[in-house]
Every structure is written in C-alpha cells, then in structure tokens.
C-alpha cells in the first residue's frame, strides 16, 4: 500500500512538471512558429481541410496535429501552452503506455522502469515539450505495435480488440506524418517474419476489418483535401515522400552515422544500458512462436536503418525507436546485476565530465547574434542541470552499493527528467535571437484589420503567431514555393514592386532583417521603426498628416 501511494505521488508530480512548463518558453523558429501558426489560421478561416501557412497552401504534412492544436486554441486560447499541448499530451501518453506494456509483458518492475527510462531520455523528453510532429507520430506508432504485440499473445481473449486498436493507431499515425507509418510497421512485420521464420502473426492481423478501420480513419481527409486541391496528391505523396527520402532536395543531408551521434546524446542517461538491452533482446524467451523482444529488436534496427540511409535527416526522426528501447531497457534492467549496473553508471560519469568541459568552452562564445548575456544565461542553466544529472549518477551508484537497484534507477530517472526540463528552460535565454515574440507583441496593438503587413526578403516563422496576422511575402518563397505557384497573387516577387505597393498604401507595416532595413533606409524608403530584436525589425509607413 505504501509503495502504491508513493507511485501515485510520483505520477502526479510528473504530470504537473510535464504540463506545467509548457508556457514558460517563447516559441522558437522554425518548427514551433510554423506548427503553431497553421492551426491558428485554421481557427481564423474556419477551413480545417486545406492547411495554410501565412495564408498560403501548405501540404508538407497531414492535418491531425493541426486539428488537435486548433481545438486546443478554441477551448483554451492561443498561447505557448496550448500550442505545445498536443506533443506534450502524446508524449505523456507514450510514457504511460510504455509502463502498461512492460507491466503486462514482463511484470510491474519492468513496466515502471520502461516508463521511467522513456520519460527521462533526453531526446524524448525534449521533443515532447517542443512543437514538431514527431512525438505524435511516435506515440501512434507505439500504440500500433503495442496493440499488435498484445494481439499475438497466446490465448489472448482480447486479441482481436488489440489488433483493431493497432489498425486505428496506424490510421492516426498516417494522419500524423504520412506514408512513413506504413513503411515502418509493414517493414518490421515482414523482416521479423523472415528472420524469425514465424508466419503466425499474419494469422491474427484481422486484415478485412482492420483495413476498413484504417481507411475509415485516415482516408476521408486525404480524399477531401485532394478534391479541394487537385495538386495535393502529387506534391504530398511523390515530392514529400519519395523525393524527400531519395534526394537532397530539402538540404537536410547528413552522413550515415549521423543518428548514432543523435542517439548518443538523446539516450542520456541510459545510453549504454539500452545498447546492452538491445544486444540481449534477440535471445529466445519461452516456447511461444511470437517473440516480443525480437519484434522490438527488429523495430529499432529497421527504423534506425531506414532513417540513416535517407537523404533527409533531422534529429527527431529516430524518436520512434525510443519507446521500444525503453521497453527493452525496462525488461533488461529489472534483472540486471548490481555489478553490471554499477559499470553502466560509472561509464556515464566521463560523459558528464565531458559535458561540463564542453559547457565551459561554450561560455566564452559570443557573436553578433548571441550576446555574452544570452550565452551566460544558457551556460548557467546547462551547468546546473549537468551537475544535477551527475548527482543523479553518483546517488544511483551509492544506492546500488546498498543493493537498492530500483531506488537507484528511480533517482537517476527523476533527476534526469528535471535536468532535461532545465535544459529547455535554459535554451529560452537565446529567445532574443531564436524568437520574435517580444518584437511582435510590441507591434500587435498597433495593427488594425485590413492593414497589410509585408515580409521583405525573408520570413520569420514566429512573427505571424505572435502578431496574430499573416504577412505578404516579398522576394521570398522557400518552403512556400509550391503554394505560391498555386496562388501567385499572394506574394510580391521583387523589392521594386514592393516599393510601389508601399507607396500606394495608406497604412502598412513591414518586417525585415536588420541588414535589409539598413539597405532600404539608405535607399530612402519612408518608414518608421517600431521595434527590433537581434535579427529583425518591424517598421510602419509614416502616417499622412
């Protein structure tokens, strides 16, 4: 009874810390500004079929997260907290699901450790508190393979129900980020069956009812948006999937070993423990045909390999391997000897020392973008959080010597979780360069409906959200190139054309970089500076007397 009360208290504290910090940081460019703005425009326009960024058609991703965030805006208002609510919610549910899955498969101890590992892994924790689409995708993929695993259990009375849950989750994953959901899940099933010489999982797929459920969830939006925008299918399915994977057109190319580095940082403090767990997970358990550990092994290796060979790489792409690694880690750590655990913890101490040395080197850095004060604010937080994490390692080592392995791992998870949140909070010290929040908030009260706002020679992703106003692009397209080809009247191709429009406007505002402001000012463009930050300035056309 006492241990259960402690578990509930920890869960409540985790919930409060997990969601309570969402509104403490400014939205940063580019992803947070982009994925906060698209649902804001859905609410304003009432069009929840065609995603738009800066009032321009934006078809790079499906609509599920946009709908969820737009719903949060409608219910609770538009701010940083509601903008980050969906990734935070799906991330939190992923932790709970890891606990439940580990508990059902391997016992209470393994479940608790799986949840603790996932919730305190640096990359997972950070990505659940910033706005990208990866945490939602990771959760629905996790739910899909969890349902599949439960459906394969011998004598499972609820096997069909779990298989339908897996199909439904796969439909939501498709609505989160597209065809990659089908590629990863289908590839894992085929690879597992071939390597394990086990075709039994195919007998429990519920293909007819499952596929019908998958299509009922995922297909309606794809059909509706294609009917409303005939150009959508080719751009989304060909350009955004095959060309992104096979070519370097998105300028996100990294070497094949790139995700090894991301894992090494993102899996802190469990880096070596999870590798050990993965290495042991191919061993056969019991005499049942289906082997959950082997299936998770295939999921991790295939997903990691798939993104490693892709020509487009960003750190969050490998997030879907973390729930599976957490489960394997919970299963493994529940049985790990005192000596082996001590060695794993000792191996992480040099990482903590290297981190402190790196932070010390960073402390002396500053340039035109990042001031001494900004870097000092960041490094102070990083130093404190690294020391906190190191204290967790030392405390865990002391507890292991007293044969309190579970208490040691719990302490390490708790302090690592807090340290992760501190790293995020420290990053906000760079907001004067990474976010236009303060700049836009100063100008927003001056805007009136119908007055144009131009974005000259660039586009700062966070301005429209904080300004609550879209902007007319001038001599800039970037990721909005495809949408502007469909509606070319929504931008101004050249700066001379902008100058003519500016002269004709009775009232107008413009956002631009500091260097562009200096150039236009030297050319004599009439404008009054309203506000500036480390990167941008917002000006207004002088009002006629």
Protein model, in words:
The protein has 545 residues and is mainly alpha-helical. Helix 6 packs across helix 16 (321-333), helix 9 packs parallel to helix 11 and helix 10 crosses helix 15 (292-309). It starts with a helix and ends in a 5-residue tail after the last strand. The chain contains 25 helices and eight strands. It has helices at 2-20, 31-45, 64-76, 80-83, 85-106, 108-120, 122-127, 134-151, 159-177, 180-196, 207-228, 232-246, 258-266, 271-280, 292-309, 321-333, 338-363, 372-401, 405-427, 431-434, 437-443, 463-467, 481-486, 495-504, 514-522, and strands spanning 52-53, 56-57, 453-456, 472-474, 491-492, 509-513, 528-532, 536-540. The strands form two sheets. It has a six-stranded mixed sheet. It has a two-stranded antiparallel sheet with strand order 1-2. The mean pLDDT is 94. The longest helix has 30 residues, at 372-401. 65% of the residues lie in helices and 5% in strands. A hairpin with a 3-residue loop joins strand 7 (528-532) and strand 8.
Euclidean distance between termini CA atoms: 77 Å
How many helices in DSSP terms? 25
Number of strands: 8
Q: How would the global form be characterised?
A: globular
- Order of strands across the main sheet: 5-4-3-6-8-7
Low-confidence stretches: none
Percent in strands = 5-15%
> Please, what is the average pLDDT?
94
Percent helix:
55-70%
- Kindly provide the radius of gyration, computed on alpha-carbon positions and rounded to a whole number of angstroms: 25 Å
The assigned structural class equals mainly alpha
| Largest sheet, strands/sense/barrel | 6 strands, mixed
